[in-house]
Structures are given as structure tokens and as C-alpha cells.
Amino acid sequence: MRGYSLMELVVALAVSAVLGASALPIFTQQTESLLLQKEAGRWLSYLQLVKARSIANKESIEIDLVTFSNGSEASDIQTKYTYSPSASLTFYGESAAATPGHIRLIGKSKQVKIIISSIGRIRLCLSEGNSLPGIPSC
């Protein structure tokens, strides 16, 4: 006889299902890491662009954080920040300074913090969770 028996096919299918199910948590964790990295890069690029425009035009630019955070494609990532309508994030073009504070991007198991200093420095760090490539721990 040639070919496989029904029992052999069922066993192979069961083994494949177990292996696939065991890989699912790793896959979801990797997906979250990639989404956090993408969102952090989006925020970092935007803030650096606004800072550069502020310096080039020698004018203060106030950032609407709510509108920018609503434009995110990553629905699983929450955005929280220390800024408020009365103390918004502003880059001051003449001095290259900024309103100090931070923006937190919160995933299920990881958290990235974007820190803006009073001298206008913008940096990323991982405040919770395992490491993310290219993002140092806080």
C-alpha cells in the first residue's frame, strides 16, 4: 500500500495544531513590539519636525496632541501625556526650548516613554516590559 493512513494524517494534524497554538503568544508579543516601535517612531518624527520648523521660523509652535494621537493606526496602543490644555506642549523657536514633559505609549505588556526636556531635547526610552530593539530602558 502507498500513501498515509487516516490515523497518521490525524496525528500529523494534531502535532501541527499544538505547535501553532504554542507559537501564538510569541506572535502576539512580537506584533505588539512592532506596533510600539512604529508608533514611537511616528511620534518622534513628528515632534522633531515641529521642533525644526519652530527653530527655522523662529516662532513658537503649540502641538495639538489629541488630534495627532487620534491619527494613529495602532488601536491597541494607548497614548497618555503630562500635558494639558493649560500647559500644552510648545516648542519655542528663538531659544529652541520646549515645555518639559512626557508622552507614554502603552501596550499590553510594554510601555514607551517619549521625554521632552526644557531645552528641547526629545528622546525615547522603554519604561516597562522587555527590551525593544533601538529603544533603551529608562
Which key terms come to mind for this protein?
138 residues; alpha+beta; four-stranded antiparallel sheet; three-stranded antiparallel sheet; rod-shaped
What does this structure look like?
With 138 residues, this protein is α+β, with helices and mostly antiparallel strands. 42% of the residues lie in helices and 22% in strands. It is built from two helices and seven strands, in the order H-E-H-E-E-E-E-E-E. Strand 5 and strand 6 form a beta hairpin. It is rod-shaped. The chain starts with 5 loop residues before the first helix and ends in a 10-residue tail after the last strand.
Oligomeric state: single chain
Q: Biggest β-sheet: count, sense, barrel?
A: 4 strands, antiparallel
DSSP strand (E) fraction? 15-25%
How many helical elements? 2
The value of Rg in angstroms is 22 Å
- In percent, how helical is the residue content? 40-55%
What is the helix/strand order?
A: HEHEEEEEE
Identify the strand order in the major beta sheet: 2-5-6-7
Low-confidence stretches: none
Structural class designation: alpha+beta
- The number of strands is 7
Average pLDDT value?
A: 88
Cα separation of the termini: 64 Å
Bulk shape: rod-shaped
